Every structure is written in structure tokens, then in C-alpha cells.
Amino acid sequence: MNPSNAASFHHRYELLSTGRRYHFVDEKPANYDAITTPTLLCIHGFPDCWYGWRFQIGPWVKRGYRVIVPDMLGYGGTDKPKETKEYSPKRLSDDMAALLDLDEIRKAVIIGHDWGSFIVGRFALWHPDRLLALILLSVPFTAPAKQYTPLHRIVEHAPNLGYQLYLADDKYTSEIEAGLHVMLPLMHRTPNAGVNFTMPGALRPIVVGEKKTWQQEREYYLEQLRQMHGPLSYYRTSKIRFDEEKAASLPSSLRPDLPVLFIWGTADPTSRALMAQKGHIAKLEEVAIHGKGHWLMIEAKDLVTEKVTDWLTELKIVPQVRARM
């Protein structure tokens, strides 16, 4: 597994029981045991794909874990439905459960970053019995809303989320696709690069007008993210999400015995208030990485890898060797 070579990972393409075909990387340790080897299911955010976890997969496998990392719906080699409703967190959570069902994995450690953090938080509400532990990177847990609030109202109180107004507007999909070579390095850059795209109206002029030279490792992202309707649909499901959660009376708190680790960068311009999640998580540990931004799996790759491994060891969620008869 070479992080610089996507082809060096073990790729699978499978039809799930939900009717969607997913592409995912599936790596097992040398001493893999279907009963005793814990599985880590890693969910990426926007704009990303399985490749965002490339620095963690190998080290976690060497520690004895099985690591499964899908391209989420709409991304890379996974199906790309046209209807926005197909991207609701409930349907994505059902896909994740079906992905585990493929190999009869009853429970797993679920890890998410960015939109992936939001989705795995909802997975923990829709499928609470499928988790050994939950790990959130960059985006904290948010409880289901008691009443629907349109995005423009949210931005009035949290202007650092203003970039989402651009991404959530379907009239800009083709424009974003054309400016992808600009937007990806902009969003993936480190916090000391001196560009803040998060405020209302700041992102579009950059995507339309700025020209940058791509670094070689970004080329894989360009290939994977050519079609942006699916990835952008995640920003366009807020009312669908609200209606689904209200109809199901989805609980506002996570399972009380579920251990949760939240890792965030103090220089992340998209970070929201963190205190709200404390009232909804009984067993929460928070880790702040000072001076790091949003893309922690890259900016602080070794620290993230080690912190997750150490935390799982403390919880005794570790690979075990069965006695052979």
C-alpha cells in the first residue's frame, strides 16, 4: 500500500442490498480473522474520496485492523444517482449498513471526516447497534433539528458556513465542475496559505477566476470528481433530511454506552461551536490539534493515525489471536 499509488490498494466493486453499486478499498492484515479482527469503516467528506484516507490505511492494517474505505455515493467509482433525495443521510446510512452486511460484519469502528463525520453521526442514530466506537474528524456531532431552518438563515448566524450557499445552489453545478482544478487545491490547502473561502460570496470568484498549477497528487482527485452533481447533492438534502428524521422521531443523543472520539484542528476555518455536542454524547473525548486546519488526515497524518490507534487500545478494541485447536 503506497499512498502515492492508488492502484497499490485492494479495490472492490460490489452491489449492495440497497440496490447501489459501491467502489471501496478493503485491506486486511496478514493474520486476519473474521471473528477477532476489528474493522474500521472510514467515510470521507467533500470534496474527497477514499483516497483522503491513504496515509492511515496502511498503518492501521499493520496494527492488525481490517480497513474498509468506500467512495461515498456520487463519488469516484460508486453509483451516481441523479435524484437529490438519494443522498439523504438515512439512505447513506443504510448503504453503510449494507456494506458491512456484505461480509457479515456485525459491528465496526466507524470513522468520518467532514461530511463523513456528519453521516457517521447519523449512522449512529439510524443503526446504533452496528458500532463498536465512533470517531469524528473536524465536524462535531449535531443532533437532529427540532424545526427546519433554511441554509441562508443558518449562515446569518454562522457566516463561516457561507461557502455552502454556493455549493447548495444547483444552478452552479456545471460552473463548479469547470472550476474543479481551482477549488480542490483551495479547499485542500493548509491554514497558513492565507486564503479564506468560507465567508458568503468568497468562494465563487475564486473558482471562476483563479488559475493554479496542480501538484501531481491532486490529479487523482480530478479524475475521481469529474461529475459534481452527486457530491454537491449532500449540501442540497437539508429539508429531505429534516423530514425523514422528524417522521422517524430520531433520537437527539447517541447511544449512552457508545465511546466517541472527536479530533479537530484549531486553525480550521469551517469549525463550528463544539459545546453543543457535549449534551448529546455520554462518553466523549475531544482532542484539539493546535495550528492544524480541516484536512487532518493529511496535515496531521501521523498524529491522527496514532491517536486513533491509542484510543482504540485504551478501549480494548484491538486485534486478538484466537487459540488454534
From TrEMBL:
Pfam families: Abhydrolase_1. Belongs to the AB hydrolase superfamily. Epoxide hydrolase family. Keywords: Hydrolase. This is Alpha/beta-hydrolase. InterPro entries: AB_hydrolase_1, AB_hydrolase_fold, Epox_hydrolase-like. Residues 38-300 form the AB hydrolase-1 domain. The keyword Hydrolase applies. Gene3D superfamilies: alpha/beta hydrolase. Transmembrane segments: none annotated. PANTHER family: EPOXIDE HYDROLASE (PTHR43329).
